[in-house]
Amino acid sequence: MQTDAVERALAEVAACRALREKQQAHRAEFQRKLEAVAKPLYVLKSKRQLELRLQ
Predict the structure, then answer these.
(1) pLDDT in tens, 2-40
(2) Pair 47, 41: CB distance under 8 Å
């Protein structure tokens, strides 16, 4: 009877640990995507560069 409760508790701890690891991986992936979007593709150094690109 007592071992059953201990096994259930250990299973619950393992499930919580797996959920936390999954959430951390998801958060890290989301952060990586967010940082990739935030970076500009190029830095415009002068207005002349823009004018040359548009011609």
Answers:
(1) 789 999 999 999 999 999 999 999 999 999 988 887 666
(2) no
